[in-house]
Amino acid sequence: MFSRRTVIEGGLAAGAFGGLSPTLSAAQSSDGGRGAPATTMLWHAKPAQAWVEGYPIGNGRIAAMLLGGVKRERVQLNEGTLFSGGPYHNVNPAARDALPEVRRLIFAGRYAEAETLANERVQAVPRREMSYQSLGDLTLDLSQANDTSFADYRRELDLDSAVATVRFVSDGIRYERQAFASAVDDVVAIRITADRPFALDCSLSSGQRGSVRLDDDGLWIEGVSNTDFDNPGRLRFAGGVAVVTDGIRTSDAGGIRVRDARSVLVLIAAATAFRSPVDVNGDPAASVRARLSAARAKGWDALHAAHVADHRALFRRLSIDLGTTEAAQRPTDNRLSRAMTRDDPALAALMVQFGRYMLIASSRGGEPANLQGKWNELNRPPWGSKYTININTEMNYWPAESGNLAECVEPLTRMVEELAISGARTAREMYGARGWVAHHNTDLWRASGPVDGARTGLWPMGAAWLSCQLWDHWDYGRDPTYLRRIYPLLRGAALFFLDTLVADPVSGTMVTNPSLSPENDHGHGSTLCAGPAMDRQLLRDLFDRTITSAETLRTDAALRRELAAMRGRLAPDRIGKAGQLQEWLLDWDADAPQQTHRHTSHLYALFPSQQVNTDDTPDLAAAVRRSLELRGADATGWALAWRIALWAHLRDADRAYAQVRTLLQSQPNATAMPGYQPPFQVDCIFGGAAGILEMLVQSRDERIQLLPALPAAWAKGSIAGVRVRGGCSVDLAWEGGRPTSVMLHPTLSGRRVVRHAGRTHSVTLTAGRSLRLDPAIWTRS
């Protein structure tokens, strides 16, 4: 799927490191063994005690959670399109007539009344969207093993090969179990081997509306997705398990029995009838049978080799070394539990690589990474395990660009294209507007109306943020074909606001109404308001990026002028009486009942946007700093991740590092990585990885900032393959806080300005030709 040429252009061709000592050099000689480095290996000395402590594997479409049991291994299975419900649209037919009164009540300061009316007549029908669901469990039972009597236990997840391994001795037999999810062959493959003949029982179960049966190849399940919130499931699915062994295989009503085996290969495939948000006429059974047949013909060795090569073509594009202490030799759970009390720089590097691993595993083909990536054991998971687009979905993709995994954005792009179709209908029927709109959530069926309650759901900025996220993807690569593809999305999102922005009766500025600052109560009877800071910031980005795109594509001159005029009528960011960046149009921050609210929506202008920065807007940057101080240091996992990036862009290394350590120990019982605890959510893993990268390298326009927020604990290290805007990747080594080696690998020609510690150096880059910078430029007087 990804060519060798792509890998070379990502900056990791032979010799590209230019004298650096990248961490992955050791990993590349490892095949998941005990000697793999602390930055690419999770390992534990005990089985998982709960689902959230398991190891995730995935190929972007199917996924599994492995708990590493001794006698019994639970392999919990997911298929990325297995959602409840079926094709639907959720606009409330009363919404268009009710919206003018909701606006009037908000402008009159009658916020609680506006919320009541919105809940009665504006919120979506149905009120809740559909949920991502679990396919079921495969149980592998080693009948001769003993859960209470075993030795030499080691469970590991090798991020470099994307292979999970469990080794132990029980009842005198030494077992090894390896598993991976192949994107090449679209199956999960598990191999169990032992040094003496062993016995294995395989069974399959599911909480879905389906039946499990035996067939000629193995185990089979087929059915229809579950009912959810009174919405009947209409999506057909199928799953199959093939068992290949050198032992004796039999079967009965309980499943498949294997005896006197030295090796057992278990192959798993799954599919649904989903073809698109409006087409569920696929043939999942035929798809599953074809994948299992092809994988069975290849066998373990060929499957494994193809999988590892395919994964490494992506994963090895970036390496990171922040230093190593004795803590790096400990099991991952022990390292996490000590993150606040002992420096373990390799643990932060491990989080970067784990975030990249998780993105590869959950966003290659198929659907984009949802709130739980692709891993969910429940049929009614927290928040539906769908797509929360007021921060969480966007955060999932923050490390795709700097982390050199641009291809992983394709599922998100496709989702936004599909959502724009639904969103155009919502814009027309709900608002009487052109373009398209999405609110704070969507699902497999691309519902775009305001779901849940008005306090969280009546936020019309989802299309704007998603469109800006895709523009950022373009800005890193500057591919004109991709810009032509996404320009209709930007244009449509902008048209919607040209039609729906209204004049604030006091200031005369143009504002969104109704809206809210995501999920935060302003202390005046509701969350609902007009023109919160985040909306204005998103609109400035949306209008600017639509204008820039149209100029680049030489189109829509009249629209450009109209957008520029509307942008000029938006209220500027404002500094409140406490010195903070105001979250709302009025100075309400001190009235908010949750002073330490998890969302920092009004700080979008600093990151991921670049409207505010310490160089060009120092007063606003100082106000952002004050807002962060008032918010406090504690937050949920994804909110901590966002704060890492915010402090990094304020160039405050100590505060950013403190948030890294807090995130790493945010759940002291974690055995995998932070955020990986109930309620399971992957956005903090992705956001934390991106935040750490922002501490090391940042980019804006044609400017590259080296080591903007380097903490003392990472005084010596290196990173290779980190991407910056404008079609370029960077290899960087440093010591004593100063760069000792800098290599730029451009895919586009042009001028760049490289900065470090207040010094700037301008260079001319030629596409395809790497350039080494003289480290003395950072020390000359």
TrEMBL record:
GO terms for molecular function: hydrolase activity. SUPFAM superfamilies: Six-hairpin glycosidases. PROSITE patterns: TAT (PS51318). It comes from the Bacteria. Residues 42-276 form the Glycosyl hydrolase family 95 N-terminal domain. It holds the Pfam family Glyco_hyd_65N_2. PANTHER family: ALPHA-L-FUCOSIDASE 2. Keywords: Hydrolase. Residues 300-696 form the Glycosyl hydrolase family 95 catalytic domain. It comes from Sphingomonas floccifaciens. Residues 698-758 form the Alpha fucosidase A-like C-terminal domain. This is Glycoside hydrolase N-terminal domain-containing protein.
